[in-house]
């Protein structure tokens, strides 16, 4: 005989043990005890540590070089790109073509092109949904007219 599985609870599960009444936990923005201790130990040594890290990177330590460049170089850049106007879903094809041409001409990186293409696809889908809603509303209005 098969047993019925209980329905999932609608109440949210609390991670860990909740604090006692009146104890809201650590204040927002306060630091962990270990972080405070580490900061106090490194106080005044920051410049020397950065200098040593740069020396290691210059000496050929690839991991240190990667670490330093990851902190110094900007992760993303603002790009200037002439996006064609999109009023209809079919305009997405023109927009994707212009993105592809910009990537091919090295005006934008392939990663930037992929991100722009995702935006174009989302916008095209939104246009499609809006068109469907308009069509359904028009059909409903026609059906109400026949029902009189």
Description:
The chain has 148 residues and is mainly α. Among the domains are: 33-72, no CATH class; 91-146. 57% of the residues lie in helices and 0% in strands. It is built from 5 helices and no strands. Helix 2 packs across helix 3 (62-72) and helix 4 (91-104) runs antiparallel to helix 5. It is flat. The mean pLDDT is 84.
N- and C-termini, Cα separation: 54 Å
**Structural class designation:** mainly alpha
Q: What Rg do the Cα atoms give?
A: 29 Å
How much of the residues is beta strand, in percent? under 5%
Which sheet architecture does the biggest sheet show?
none
What do the pLDDT scores average to? Answer: 84
Number of strands: 0
The percent range for helix content is 55-70%
Q: N-to-C SSE series?
A: HHHHH
Tell the overall outline: flat
- The tally of helices reads 5
Low-confidence stretches: none
In terms of topology, how is this protein built?
Blueprint: H1 33-42, H2 46-58, H3 62-72, H4 91-104, H5 110-146
Helix pairs in contact: 2-3, 4-5
């Amino acid at each position: 005989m098969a047993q019925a599985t209980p329905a999932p609870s609608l109440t949210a599960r609390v991670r860990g043990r909740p604090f006692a009444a009146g104890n809201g936990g650590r204040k927002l923005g306060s630091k962990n005890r270990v972080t405070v201790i580490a900061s106090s130990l490194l106080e005044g040594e920051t410049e020397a540590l950065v200098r040593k890290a740069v020396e290691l990177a210059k000496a050929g330590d690839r991991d240190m070089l990667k670490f330093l460049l990851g902190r110094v170089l900007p992760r993303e850049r603002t790009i200037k790109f002439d996006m064609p106007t999109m009023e209809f879903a079919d305009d997405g094809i023109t927009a994707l073509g212009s993105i592809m041409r910009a990537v091919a001409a090295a005006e934008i990186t392939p990663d930037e092109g992929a991100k722009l293409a995702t935006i174009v696809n989302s916008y095209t889908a939104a246009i499609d949904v809006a068109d469907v809603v308009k069509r359904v509303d028009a059909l409903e209005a026609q059906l109400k007219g026949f029902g009189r």
